[in-house]
Records
---
Amino acid sequence: MQLVLEKRAERSNTIALVSPLIAIGLTIVTMTILFAILGKNPLLALHAYFIAPLTDSYSLQEIAVKATPLVMIAIGLSLCYLANAWNIGAEGQFLIGAVAGSWIAVKTQGTDAGAWVLPAMFVLAAAAGALYALIPAICKVKFGASEILTSLMLVYVADLFLDYLVRGPWRDPQGFNFPTTAEFDPVATVPLLIEGGRLHLGSIIALLVVAAAAILLGRTIKGFEIRVVGAAPRAARFGGFNANQLIILTFAVSGALAGLAGIIEVAGPVGHLQPGISPGYGFTAIIVAFLGRLNPLGILIAGLFLALTFIGGEQAQIAMKIPLDVTKVFQGILLFYVLACDSLILYRFKLVFPNRQVASGTH
Amino acid sequence: MQAHQRMLDPTPNGLHSGESPLLQTLGLTKRYGDFLANDSIDIDIWPKEIHALLGENGAGKSTLVKSIYGLIQPSAGEIRWQGGRIMLSGPSEARSRGIGMVFQHFSLFDNLTVAENVALGLDGKESFKDMSARLEQVSKTYGLPLDPKREVWQLSVGERQRIEIVRALMQDPKFLILDEPTAVLTPQEADQLFIVLERLKAEGRAILYISHKLEEVKRLCDTATILRGGKKVDTCNPRLETAASLARMMVGGEIKEVKAAAGRKTTVPRLVVNDLSLAPAEAHGVRLEHISFELKGGEILGIAGVAGNGQDELFAALSGERLSKDPGTVVIEGIAAGHLSITQRRKLGAAFVPEERLGHGTAPRMKLSENALLTGHAASGMVNHGFIDTAATLKTVDRATETFDVRKAKRDPEAASLSGGNLQKFIVGREILRNPAVLVVSQPTWGVDAGAAAVIRQALLDLATAGAAVLVTSQDLDELAEIADRIAVMFHGHLSAPLATVDASREKLGLLMGGSSLEPKEAAHAVGA
């Protein structure tokens, strides 16, 4: 008896919906074993990760706050990935957006500038993120350089650039030598949705981005172009679509969304520019994009789920002394299972019996 | 049924009583999921026999020979070799037992020499020098001339096939399987191949000859086994059958005759190509050399030629997948279009059907409605201010389904789930429904069942009757003879002057396909110009 993968005639829509759930299930089983090996009670640990954060308003708001950048970045990445353009550097585009937007905040600090400041920060952050993403895109189109490598390497450039700014020119003179800018003025801060709460305007923007992406991909010719270039490049060329233009476009949009997410994070929950503004949002968003099946609505759900793991991870650290790195292990295992389960959409498992048995059965 | 009675006696002429066949399959079955690719097939192959395996695409011919060659494991049934049951672990075991195979698609490395390619395909441990010497000897013995030191990319398709045949023969097989060997040959090259095959037969070897060219089978083969829908229909002596009776067994019914409308009138030139030259896009591609022709409305021009002589490059240049610097090289509906994109050419009224159905003509994993949009977005009212009109795309699917009898499981399935014939009907239908002024179509019925092929050829004729200019590239000379008004031949990137179909004998076309010119005077003139 032998287990083989067999190609399906048509992709299974049921499995396409169920596969992320199978992946989550397998991840939880694996994590249970891992917790047991770490000597923690798996049931308590899973409770801390997945149930506890859902029980109070503060944690629920915090999940939405964490999901906001994840969803915005993942939407942009999904456009790239659908078009077969592999932007791995959203983390860098996020940081550059944060830096560019912060420039306005730093320069207008204490000048009593008007309400134009925050919109201007958003626009500049998006533009900077887009331009930063265009570097690997143009290298890919003009020179054939692997966008995977170049976009990834630019993450470290952005990281160190931010580090230099907050330790050097932009450091808060009253900041006791901490590497951080001064706290942004109220006009340079993202407004809260609930007085005294955590939820801010950025979450609304993320929802608008999800809606826009759903319309783009489902209803417009440009969305069709993105999907067909990725799914069948030669057919796309036959259809009159230009893959190189699309690499440029999807990278730019993805960079703009990551940059916007960056400034929203800095001008929102953080309130000033400092190193470590991102716990790896740009990388976790890759998992969100795939867990959400590169589908806008799926990404929204997946973004909330991964935000839950961030919050849950913090709670598990506080309550059970489980290291925060376990959250990253969890996310990595999840991506692994998501990609593995995806093969079930086009293939199915089949038990095959050796020749002899069947032959004797039919004769 | 008569066929069934005859099936009981697998050796119609009773010559082999008393001995056991060289190779025998008993109830050989191969299942892919719920699909039975081979359903309990019995076949006997005797030494000194050229045995034809006939059937339409999808009848199960390839699956059967893959089982015999050890490439796949049968789900049930058995294979007997010289009377004893064998279970092949893979092709190398098949080869070591004396079973050789020449595939339709060659597995050769373009940048390696003939000898290096042969060495890579052999399991033996002899030195390269010995092997080269033996290669030369085998190729001489069988009249298959090959220069061991030449690199494969310099060779013609016929020569490449020789490498594959010589490679198989160097293992001294008792049984040789050939998969559609004449599909890539000129009529003259095919005749040469038949001489080699007759000789192999005289040496006592057996040959399993896969084909769907019936005249060829009648001429060459001693026995024919016909498959249809995965089942064996009959085993017969093809010389006692007519091409029509063999075709009936293959198809399981009568084939519709294609009818050309009487009094088709040619009108103004709708597609004109002027001195089109284009460097190849890929290494070892073919350079298009000074191609010129004029195609009028109401006319079908056929382009014949062995594959790989620039047909793909010509299609790319005509469709606009590759652009020409000089706009005047391609003129569509009186407008210089050499520099225009495929979308702009479609807007001028041109439509295109490429050779590859999946991955080029359609996105395999997308729905038919989305594949309608793929070529219809430019000029068919399917897009409104950037938004897709889903109803319009679905309407195209429905109309193509009705007009061209596209059979599918549901209203709007993925392209890849359709059979080759039905997908091709959809693709041709999708383009014809746009009422094109010019249709450029490449291998319209390649790998398509006879019923679908008849529908497609009729559609092309009807389109021309309605006034469109139709350019058909095909390797099937019978197809061109059936529908084209004139036939030109591509060779090494050159296009011959078109011949009226009535004057284009197989011999003339074969000479042109092999690179000879028909009249020395004409050639001298061409050089002078």
Note: The longest helix of chain B spans residues 187-202.
---
Amino acid sequence: MSSPGQDVLAHTVRGVDHAAFPTFDPRATITFYRDILGFPVVHATCALGWGPGDHPDFIHFFFDIGSGDRLAFFYYFGVEPYRDTGIPDLLHRARHLAIHVDTEDDLLEYRRRLDASDWPCELQVRHETVESIYVTDPNGYLMEITRPLRAITVEDDIDANLSVDALMEVAAEPDPSLEKFFARKAKLISERYAGEPEPVTFA
Amino acid sequence: MTTLFVLDVADFRPLAEVAGKDPDVTVRRRGPYLEVAAPGLIRIDRNAVGCRNAVWYSAVAAVKDGRVSRWDKSELVVEPTGAGG
């Protein structure tokens, strides 16, 4: 189950066409994404009697989030608003959409727009390779806008692949843990780079 | 040998450099990794490394014949276990 030696599948997908979510507050959603963040509306499907019996009429509307990618919402007429208040905070934080910007200036401009609105930025943090701002949108969805702090290198990609190989192995066994993961990954590193290591001096 | 692997990129290289100041620690390059090894404990002081939080807490790539016994805002300690992975 190791990545080296696996047949390489042709990789022809090209980013996000659209990610779609339900909304029960289309006015706040349009205000937030179009008027505050400035994401252009690029498509809307108005469906009369097209949906299933309990919600036949809906509007499916799309915002441009750059590079031809789109964020879409469904608004169903006549459907009682639903909000799952029982979602653990862990899941709320984990499920999110991260939208890319290229520069710090761009990130701070989006932060400025949020901070001037009813949905101010909740958190700004420098992660290991990106810096991000976070906001919960009017629907309760966590959204991130992020800019790169450094280029991702071939070493990062190699490390990521060894990490998921180790995770595949450890997660197949009872009681997976980070300690077991680190040990398994060390074994994979030692096998893959089995030669004599080179001495290192720091300038 | 207690062995800590960190990826040899600019973010994580300072950890290996700080660890290597201990005369018991050797630092060698294995593939894209810096292999930090010692017969006993490996102890890395956070202030000496000087990296930000997210880099500090994502610096460990792998650990051989040891376990992370402390990894907080002050230091990273890898202690020997004597057992392979």
Note: Chain B has one domain: 2-80.
---
Amino acid sequence: MNGNDDPTRNALWNPVFLADLRRDLLRFAELQLRDQSAAEDTVQEALTAAFSGQDRFTGRAALKTWVFAILKNKIVDTLRHRQRTAPITSLIPDDEEEGDDFAVLFNPGHHWNPADRPQAWGDPETTFAQQQFWVVFETCLTRLPENTARVFMMREFLGLETLDICLELALTTNHCHVILHRARMGLRLCLEQRWFTPENPTC
Amino acid sequence: MLTCQQVTRLLSEAQDRKLRLKEKLPLKLHLLMCAGCDNFHQQMDFLRQASRRYSVAPPNADDAE
């Protein structure tokens, strides 16, 4: 630390910034690990690593992105470790009946019921700009079954390739695709109902 | 002829692997004729974009300014 001449460089030393950042990191880690103490440990490791390399960024947004990149690597490590000690496969129900939970959306000919037909969601950027949307997004992720959510987040948040996830979790490729399909079906349905329906006053 | 239910599965898999030509053509044809599935297709892209955005650094109120 060398004084306050460069507020960017010292952003991690700013207690308010650090508290906010830590809160965001924790929420992100908890969403994926669904275990508070594991999330706290992982965030602690990420912050420790961030403190030891904090000269490499410019600007707070870049700092936040960088710390999140570190956190994502730590979450991958934690998930790998967990997979070795308590494999996810033992937790996944065996019913492979695909789309099972969502069959009600379709008629007997397997086409959309008129009331359940997906709607146009408009310009994504308009939605992303609304802070409240991200609260709903998190809520919808939380409502997915735990393992479904985990596989989805490994794919979409941690950016792992589907084949690697299958290998990692010892799942067949088909099972992986079934789980990801369920996750996306659940997430889109939740967002459509909670965010995009006309009753939603913010739309 | 693909059903809408099959199309949702294919559109989800398209996010994870390259579809084969013999999967792509019937899918394209279905999407041209089915507004619901076409919307679903765009929703899949939306989910990917939202996830990318969220995981780069979750947006929050103090970033909004």
Note: Chain A has a mean pLDDT of 84.
